[in-house]
Amino acid sequence: MDDAALELQKLDALIAKGKMYVILVFGVLFWGMLTSLVVALIHYFISGDPFWAELQRALYIYPIGGILFGWFVWVQINRKRDKLRAQ
User: Fold this and answer.
1) Structural domain of residue 62, as residue ranges?
2) Which of 22, 32, 47, 48 yields a CA-CA distance of 20 to 30 A from 81?
C-alpha cells in the first residue's frame, strides 16, 4: 500500500469519528487547553499574577478559540481527503 492510500485510510477513519469529535478533541482539548496552560505560565512569569487566576482566565478564552481551530482542522482534513481521492 502506498503512502497516499495509507493517508487516505487514516483520514477516512478520522472523518468517520465525526465533526464534533475532531472539534472537541483537536480544537478544545489539544489546542485550547494546552494554549491556556502556556499562556497562563507566560503571564505568571511576566506579570507576577497568581498562576491559578491566570489559568482560570485563560480557560475561559482559549477553549472557545479551540472550537474555531477544531473547525478549521475539520475543513482541512476534508480538503486533504478530497484531494487524495481525486488523484
Assistant:
1) 3-86
2) 32
